[in-house]
Amino acid sequence: MEDLRKINSMQLYYLWRNLAISLLCIGVIMGGSHMLPFYMAPVLSLLLCAILYTMLWNNRAHGENGCMVVVETMLYSLICYTFISVLLVVVQVLDLYHFPNEIIFFNDPYLPSLILLPTLFIVSLFALLFKNSMPSYRQFRSEYGNIKERGYFGFITSKETDFQLKNIAIVFSVLACVVWWYYLCEYVSINRNGRDWYVFLWIVIIMVILDEIYFMIRYYNLYLDLLEHNEIITPEELRDVTARTYLRFYVICGEYVYIDKNAVDRLNKVKGVYDSPFITKRTVNGIPTSDVRQIVEKMTGQKGGELRFFFGRPLAGVDKHTLLRYFYFLDGDISDYKDMGMDGEWVHFDDIKKVYSENPTKVATNALNDLSRLSTIILTERVFDEDGIRKNRIKSYKGSFSLSDVRRTKIDLQDDKWIKISQFNSDMRFFKIKKFLRELSGSGSKRQFQKKQ
Fold it and tell me: How far apart are CA 308 and CA 366, in angstroms?
């Protein structure tokens, strides 16, 4: 299970590459608008939008394991910039309002930084605040699970994506303030000079280049640090790696779970946490249910239990590696199962839920994530219907569940449908308006909550 901390070196490259291409688009727009005829500015930005959209599509189609939030943010920024630029021209052509010549792309000079920089700041700020709702992030999370399910790289991805968005927001907000201050206080349209072009053009291009270099150094140093701690797996090693299937079993008897209270969290390398002791791996790609049963019976020393599949995920960036979770329900009383073949003890589920609520750091990362998924799915199905509407109109009602409920449930726990409903339901503000907009865009609630085929 130590492999869950391994990070594919290509994933770090994708983190830098996606940001580098996004920043490069800014430099291309600034330089291209200066060298080409000014009226080609919106055509150039639309061409870059097509390139960014192709990147998003290829990532979804070929599964490059890269988080594309920054690319999607840049795509939205360029779309907004193009729309605003065209809208200003239309308003002026219709003689509804006369704008300064410098923000109309039919005039000479046209200064795209006056529109582009504030747009980049606003869109990146919204992306930072609503990252979890962005299609590329939802798609990545649906494919590989949430932060904790993606293993150690999940933490790095989330942290670095937030840092990149903060960087874009801060850098371009400062540049926007500098450019607009200079335009309002220092710029003289009838006497343009080299300093004007330095402020409106070259200072932006220089900052983009410096930002590219900074992140190149940042990720190279991160790579060296991870390599030093043996937490990097190279493409060469990936080609030689054999298929592996990791198995986690939660052994349950009545309302008790067999737990090792002094386990080691294999993701955070922390000792003394709650976790299932029944963890193993096999060097095969996929395991038949009959073999899974033999494995858990051998590990527990108990036969005749009910084996139930929980859910499984491929490991992000590590081909042919999969982590599967199972329940193994035993009948009778815990006094009948004193020797389980592993270090641990029977712990009442209420005690586990108490630790989960009051001190989650005492629960191993994978166990914490699995319990969170289980409770979210079961409680959401009890509270809401498939359209996200509350079954019980008392909003204070949250519901509860027991292990007997888990054993009886017919819900497909592998399906993310109820996870999505927990994130988008009638308890949200303006739910009906948001639902209408989603249906209008072709991603209505029913379609959204369908299981991915």
Answer: 18
Place of tokens 């067999």: 258
Reading the block at residue 318, the tokens are 């590590």
Q: What is the DSSP letter of 388?
A: S
d(CA 9, CA 188): 50
Q: Say if residues 369 and 376 touch (Cβ distance below 8 Å).
A: no
Q: What is the C-alpha separation between 421 and 451, in angstroms, rounded?
A: 12
Measured distance CA(13)–CA(220) in Å, rounded: 9
Which amino acid is present at 439?
E
pLDDT in tens, 9-59: 777 888 899 999 999 999 999 999 888 888 888 999 999 999 999 998 887
**What Cα–Cα distance (Å) separates residue 253 from each residue in 218, 263, 446?**
50, 20, 36
Distance CA 186, CA 172 (A): 20
Contact assessment for residue 315 and residue 151, using Cβ atoms and an 8 Å cutoff: yes
Angle formed at CA 24 by CA 18 and CA 30, multiple of 5 degrees: 150
Distance CA 67, CA 124 (A): 15
Helix 69-93 to helix 9-35 angle, to the nearest 10 degrees? 20
Tokens of 401: 């569940």
Nearest to 178 by CA among 163, 196, 166: 196
**Poorest-pLDDT segment among 147-156, 238-247, 295-304:** 147-156
| pLDDT attached to residue 396 | 67
Distances (CA, A) of 157 to 70, 128, 232, 318: 12, 14, 15, 15
Distances (CA, A) of 52 to 18, 62, 77, 94, 308: 10, 15, 11, 32, 43
Cross-strand pairs, 258? 346
Q: Residue type at 2?
A: E
- Contact indicator for 446, 386 with CB cutoff of 8 Å: yes
Residue 446's pLDDT band, with cuts at 50, 70 and 90, is very low
- Orientation of helix 113-129 relative to helix 9-35, angle to 10°: 150
- Cα gap 297→211, rounded to integer Å: 56
pLDDT at residue 99, rounded to an integer? 86
CA 419 centroid distance within chain: 14
Q: Identify the pLDDT of residue 122.
A: 96
Confidence (pTM): 0.70
Q: How far is CA 141 from CA 48, 159, 308, 347, in A?
A: 26, 15, 24, 32
Backbone angles phi and psi of 396, in degrees to 5: -75, -15
pLDDT for 453 equals 37
pLDDT top residue among 132 and 401: 401
The residue among 265 and 299 whose pLDDT is bigger is 299
